Amino acid sequence: MPHLKVVYDPVGQASVGGKLSTLNIDDLTPLFPLVDVITPNLLEAKKLAQSDSSEVSLLANAIHHLGVKSIVIKGGHSDRESSAAHCIDYCLENSDSSAQKLRNYQLRSSRIETSYSHGGGCSYATALAAFTAHGYLLRDALTLTKAFINQGLSWHKHKRAYYGAFEQLGWPTNRAYFPTVNDRTSQKNSLLLAFKNLGISSGRKLGLYPVVDSLEWLKLLLPLGLEIIQIRLKTKLTAIWTA
């Protein structure tokens, strides 16, 4: 099945204790090339990479060399001082299997202290598989997954006396639960000015809102009296049209 996506959560140990698997790297080696995305936490990533390093980029690259296409190292078990107040998930993504184009980025959100986290790792992988099945690209599916996890952890964040199960709620829509994406493109564009406010009052209907990709289309639409037109030019212009 060429369109089948495989998401693998290498659960090594339950958060309440006890090993869940006796599989070693040699046992897993034939499986790795079939995996599109693997979702270890930091401890599991160290075992897969056979390394004591806590540098997630090195661990991800080592796992990639085992044959896994894309690696997501969850940040919930990170003990780095720089991330004490935040949970940072690291992704090494193979965006083009034929050309082996790799890119990496991080998803950063506030760390949520709660005792209701049992099953969070499994829910993470399941949500990622579900969002991928909806047709989202990995980066978008991962962002939705992180929002889903933050939403569930926040549900019981003030209850710390009892160790309970992660709360699997609905599709995340609250902006507060979504992470910040940190990559080279985001860093490069972080100082760009925001678009000016269009001054559109709340509840006002815009009517027809065309999105066009050429100046020729813009020239045709301008005389129609439309309230708003968006033009998206993604290629270098060879000529400039002036009204």
Task: Please render the helix and strand layout as text.
Blueprint lengths: L6 E2 L16 H4 L8 E2 L3 H8 L6 H9 L5 E4 L12 E11 L4 E10 L5 E3 L1 H14 L4 H17 L9 E2 L14 E3 L1 H6 L21 E2 L2 H7 L8 E2 L12
Parallel strand pairs: 1-2, 2-3, 6-7, 9-10
Antiparallel strand pairs: 3-4, 4-5, 5-8
Please give a structural write-up.
With 243 residues, this protein is an alpha/beta fold. It has helices at 25-28, 42-49, 56-64, 120-133, 138-154, 184-189, 215-221; strands at residues 7-8, 37-38, 70-73, 86-96, 101-110, 116-118, 164-165, 180-182, 211-212, 230-231. The strands form 3 sheets. A 6-stranded mixed β-sheet has the order 1-2-3-4-5-8, with helices on both faces. Strands 6-7 form a two-stranded parallel ribbon. Strands 9-10 form a two-stranded parallel sheet. The model has no long low-confidence stretch (mean pLDDT 82).
The average pLDDT value, as a whole number, equals: 82
Gyration radius from CA atoms, angstroms? 22 Å
Q: Given the C-alpha coordinates, what overall shape results?
A: globular
Strand-pairing-aware structural class = alpha/beta
Arrangement of strands in the largest sheet: 1-2-3-4-5-8
List low-pLDDT spans.
none
Helix proportion of residues, in percent?
25-40%
